[in-house]
């Protein structure tokens, strides 16, 4: 059985050799998602959490999910504006033209939901300029237009007010040559404050399992969960990510203090369940799903989570 997903430090300990009964196959996530959306066969794979919930509410029943969340991210660090922009806070974003790579991406859903819930800015109040990645169509109420060029270039040229992106090419330039800056003066500080206030470290991806693979091996769900848990424990023990860069140990210690020793808990813990329910509320409010599914119905029971 093959698990396909991104190459993370916390999955390094999952076997990758051909002779392993369950092996991890690192891959770029975009093509993996497209393969699954086309209905092509797979065993288990990393998938976007919002996309999975959308598919399940639209009747896709040949997959289920395991409560393994290999990717999370805050969104405050994804907000880019021009250096000369008057915008400097999330409260400034009503009525703006905002660039998104994919309107229905999980990070975009979290961002729009946060704007409405915490800043009173409804998603209908903005124009969303989107790139070519359009996995799920937006609702007719959304003011969505197709980008007529590269989104970062549109921001630099003043055609959009803000670009929502994990990274931008501009940041590779020397400081004096950069045309863009973060919207917020201290994005990481804002993210830490958001976590302290809400208890949410936004879930982005989930591991899904084809029902065909589950039927072929009834122990697959437990086995996969166990492999992910063991690999994450190994990463935490080795402090992966802290040894290569300067100040890595100090950053590691402060991060672990903030998150109680584990920034990425697996399982349907109270924290994870609350985050999933929040995402479901955002998806429903943004008209990307027609009803709110029960969280437990979305996941395959896995006895390994209880051990």
Automatic annotation (TrEMBL):
Stored Gene3D superfamilies: Periplasmic binding protein-like II
Pfam families: Phosphonate-bd
Listed name of the protein: 4,5-dihydroxyphthalate decarboxylase
């Amino acid at each position: 059985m093959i698990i396909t997903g991104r190459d993370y430090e916390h999955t390094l300990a999952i076997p990758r050799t051909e002779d392993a009964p369950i092996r991890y196959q690192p891959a770029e996530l975009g093509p993996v998602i497209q393969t699954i959306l086309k209905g092509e066969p797979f065993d288990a794979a990393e998938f976007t959490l919002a996309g999975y919930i959308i598919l399940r509410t639209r009747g896709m029943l040949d997959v289920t999910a395991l409560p393994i969340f290999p990717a999370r991210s805050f969104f405050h660090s994804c907000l880019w504006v021009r250096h000369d922009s008057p915008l400097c806070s999330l409260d400034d974003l009503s009525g703006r033209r905002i660039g998104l790579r994919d309107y229905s991406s999980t990070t975009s859903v979290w961002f729009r939901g946060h704007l409405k819930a915490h800043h009173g800015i409804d998603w209908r109040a903005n124009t969303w300029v989107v790139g070519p990645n359009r996995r799920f169509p937006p609702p007719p109420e959304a003011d969505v237009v197709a980008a007529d060029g590269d989104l970062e270039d549109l921001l630099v040229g003043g055609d959009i007010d803000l670009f929502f992106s994990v990274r931008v090419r501009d940041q590779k330039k020397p400081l004096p040559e950069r045309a863009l800056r973060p919207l917020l003066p201290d994005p990481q500080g804002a993210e830490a404050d958001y976590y302290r206030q809400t208890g949410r470290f936004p879930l982005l991806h989930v591991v899904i399992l084809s029902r065909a693979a589950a039927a072929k091996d009834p122990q697959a769900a437990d086995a996969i969960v166990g492999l992910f848990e063991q690999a994450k424990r190994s990463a935490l023990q080795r402090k992966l990510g802290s040894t290569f860069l300067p100040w890595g140990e100090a950053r590691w210690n402060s991060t672990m203090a903030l998150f109680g020793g584990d920034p990425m808990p697996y399982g349907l813990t109270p924290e994870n369940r609350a985050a999933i329910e929040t995402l479901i509320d955002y998806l429903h409010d943004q008209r990307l799903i027609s009803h709110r599914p029960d969280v437990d119905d979305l996941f395959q029971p896995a006895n390994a989570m209880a051990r």
